[in-house]
Amino acid sequence: MNQSDGPFGLESVFQTQRSAHRDAPFPEWELRRDRLRRLERLVRENEARIEAAIDADFGGRPPIETQIAEVFPSLSEIRSVSRGARRWMKPRGAWVSKWFLPARAHVMPRPLGVVGIIVPWNYPLYLAIGPLAGALAAGNRAMLKLSEYTPEFALLMQRLVAGLFRPDEVSVILGGAEVGAAFSALPFDHLVFTGSTAVGRKVMAAASANLTPVTLELGGKSPTVVTPGYPVPKAVARILAGKLLNCGQTCIAPDYVLVPRGSVDAFVAEAGAQARRMYPAGLADSDYCSVIDQRQYARLVGYLDEARAAGTRTVDLFARPPRDDAAHRMAPVAVVDPPMSLALMREEIFGPILPVIPYERPEDAVAFINERPHPLALYWFDNDRARSEWALQQTHVGGACVNETLAHVAQETLPFGGIGPSGMGHYHGKWGFDTMSKLTPVFRQSPLNAMGLFMPPYRPIARRLLALMKRF
């Protein structure tokens, strides 16, 4: 980047891509396919380097978790859009109102131009590749701003992208908050941000100056409900699998769990047993991820200190020690029936702390959820299909799983996105292709048409025809 060209050299990179788009505004399928193949090569040929870089950034992240949560879904997303994009980019037929026949109409998906993608630290590969695959499939150029909190991965990704893509195709931007703010203020044709709601507000405000459309993938406190009669061990196994992946540092992780009052003790006891089955060596287990850094670790410790000072019951789910301050490693903790005034009940937890909240009736659980901002995800554990459908109808959430956690995000056929404070817009698969395309309506007039009858000077036949048309 040319540091003399505007703040951080961003404008130069942007104008390079904008100019390239103007010169070739509608890439043919062969070029789009080539770009997707290069993106797939980037992931496939560098898996070990990617795993090592993310492990270094986290101070301990199991390679298998990077495979499960980043490498596999990244390749799956690339394959999905590669299979479908040639079909999606073709004109889509549309009906014409009967009064305009024999005219014809269609919808033409056009590339938007230059797409900006702001990538968070928690899943730096997947949350870069997912939206990038959609952008490239739709025929766009892309600039990626990677997180300063994953510096090893960010530098690696910048080098890998530079080795496979021209700067006018894909560019990776590094830097801290000031660079991120300047990046958000560029006049992109679309901007994708994944991160916290607080930062999402700032990104949207910056984008609004250019009327840049945004896709915001935020977070919030995603609830889990275990209904009466659902087997507690089955629920606990799936909830902890979703909660403890990446040490809870997942935007769609179960944030808290609502449990029938009479099942709270059984749930907590089973959670401890399940946590120890999953990670027999506790904090020393090589399959257990670290909290990414001391900043996030101190935030989580503060949540627990406040809860304990308030007299709230907390249960360490591993055998001791419950944490390692120097290595920013924290064991999972159940917090039983916490006061709503606690920070961990007001803020997204984003870590291995699980509030367990008793309720009397399923209606009370749904009311509890609906009293709070719309979450990114809902997890409902229930063997009663009718009640599950009722719960889905009564709640307003970004996405949902019944008797599972996290799995909806891995389905390329489903749109992924939030609602209200948890985000706006969708991507994945065809949903991402359409988000990053302008679906241009095209009306093609027939030589034989009656439009001349409705032009000034208006004759009596125009009024008679309008009267007839309003009846049908």
How far is it from the N-terminal to the C-terminal residue, by CA? 62 Å
The biggest beta sheet is recorded as:
7 strands, mixed
> Are there runs of 5+ residues with pLDDT below 50, and where?
none
CATH fold-type name of the largest domain? Aldehyde Dehydrogenase, Chain A, domain 1
- Please tell me how large the radius of gyration is: 26 Å
Strand order of the largest sheet: 10-13-14-9-8-15-16
| Helix-and-strand structural type | alpha/beta
Overall geometric form = globular
Output the CATH homologous superfamily of the largest domain.
Aldehyde Dehydrogenase, Chain A, domain 1
Average pLDDT, all residues: 96
CATH architecture of the largest domain: 3-Layer(aba) Sandwich
**Beta-strand percentage range:** 15-25%
Explain the overall architecture.
The protein is built from 16 helices and 18 strands. With 472 residues, the protein is an alpha/beta fold. It has 2 domains: 230 residues, 3-Layer(aba) Sandwich (Aldehyde Dehydrogenase, Chain A, domain 1); 195 residues, Aldehyde Dehydrogenase, Chain A, domain 2. The strands form 4 sheets. It has a 7-stranded mixed β-sheet, with helices on both faces. It has a 6-stranded mixed β-sheet with strand order 5-4-3-6-7-17, with helices on both faces. Helix 5 packs across helix 15 and helix 9 packs across helix 10. The longest helix is centred in the first third of the chain and has 26 residues.
